[in-house]
């Protein structure tokens, strides 16, 4: 039969680590210089642009949420007019009731005076 030979990596290669995201460590345990991924300028500028754009979009959304729309403004104006009319009507009814009470009290006083005069 054929003999099976063991295959070993050459001694100048660094063994592959289990995680693919980290570069392999050398014999001293330190990472090899130049192995970290540096962002490309175009990717970095796109990243910064997207962050700034997201921030501006979020701010615009907050401002639009705080400002009432035209429909809300119209509803508020209509509500203000309705409440103004209700208040005027309530005040009118209140004055009419007071006048009615005053007339009744004046009539009672006249009747009481008339009774006293008769006695």
List the helices and strands and how they pair.
Elements: H1 41-66, H2 70-118
Unreliable stretches (pLDDT < 50, length at least 5) are none
User: What percent strand?
Assistant: under 5%
**What oligomeric state is this?**
single chain
As a whole number of angstroms, the C-alpha radius of gyration is 46 Å
Structure commentary:
This protein is mainly alpha-helical and 119 residues long. 63% of the residues lie in helices and 0% in strands. It contains two helices and no strands. The chain has helices at 41-66, 70-118. The mean pLDDT is 78.
What key attributes describe this structure?
119 residues, 2 helices
Quick description:
The protein has 119 residues and is mostly helical. It has 2 helices and no strands.
């Amino acid at each position: 039969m054929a003999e099976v030979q063991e295959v070993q990596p050459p001694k100048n290669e660094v063994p592959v680590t289990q995680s693919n995201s980290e570069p392999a460590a050398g014999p001293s345990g330190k990472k090899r210089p130049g192995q970290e991924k540096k962002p490309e300028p175009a990717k970095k500028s796109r990243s910064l642009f997207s962050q700034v754009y997201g921030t501006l979009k979020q701010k615009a959304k907050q401002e639009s949420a705080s400002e009432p729309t035209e429909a809300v403004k119209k509803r508020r104006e209509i509500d203000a007019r309705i409440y103004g009319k209700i208040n005027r009507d309530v005040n009118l009814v209140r004055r009419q009731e007071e006048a009615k009470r005053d007339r009744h009290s004046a009539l009672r006083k006249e009747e009481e005076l008339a009774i006293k005069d008769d006695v």
